[in-house]
Amino acid sequence: MAEEEVLQAEEEVVVESADSETSEKPNEEVVAELENSEVSEEPKEKERSTTRSSGKQSGERNWYVIHTYSGYEDQVAQNLRQRIDSLDMADKIFDVMVPIEKQIEIKNGKRRTVERKIFPGYVMVDMVVTDDSWYVVRNTPNVTGFIGFGVRPTPMSVTEVENIRRRMGQDEPKYKIELKAGDLVQITDGALKGFQAKVDEVDSQKGKVKVLVSMFGRETPVSLDYLQLKQV
């Protein structure tokens, strides 16, 4: 009887120890899973902290460039001006400009003055870049982003702004001449009408084109009005 009690006690001890080993395994697995989850969360936390720190803007006033969908430049400028008023950002965003210049376009033999965008798909903004002002500009409809590195816009240089203003302020429009050196053209008016020639130089300011006409076995330079030429 005593031997049976001892054997039963030993069996109970064995069972209890087996149960304790089985119950420890899930704990080890849970600990391992928690440790792994903490490791995998660390990069995310670092990534979030990097985003927060990179979102801090310089707070400097400059001209900056934003990229828009092509053909929406004027609409973006108008929407941004409305957002500046409605969101009370006039103390941080001062001016919005779509750079344009006048050009003389020749179509169907007729000359007309047209306005062309200097940089299609881009709009200039004079602003102090803070987190708030950056958000207002960046989230204007049809704006795809600032020109710069990451979330930090790159300011334009004073020289760049002055050159663009100079182009916009020119009273005499430029000629839009879609010819370049080496192009073959036909002379459509004047004493050399019907002759073919090769473009040598293009003067967009005056609307003149110097061409080389083959005459008597040699090439003769002739200066003509752009209206007198047709591309072959």
Question: Notable features of this structure?
Answer:
elongated, SH3 type barrels, 5-stranded antiparallel β-sheet, 232 residues, alpha+beta, single chain, 2 domains, Alpha-Beta Plaits, 4-stranded antiparallel β-sheet
Quickly describe the structure.
The protein is built from four helices and 14 strands.
Structure, described:
With 232 residues, the chain is of the alpha+beta class. It has two domains: 61-175, 2-Layer Sandwich (Alpha-Beta Plaits); 178-231, SH3 type barrels (Roll). Helix content is 37%, strand content 34%. It has helices spanning 2-54, 73-86, 131-138, 158-168, and strands at 61-68, 93-97, 100-107, 110-117, 122-128, 143-146, 148-149, 152-153, 174-176, 184-187, 196-203, 208-215, 218-225, 229-231. Strands 13-12-11-10-14 form a five-stranded antiparallel sheet, with no helix packed on it. A four-stranded antiparallel sheet has the order 2-5-1-6, covered by helices on one side. A hairpin with a 2-residue loop joins strand 12 and strand 13 (218-225). The protein starts with a helix and ends with a strand.
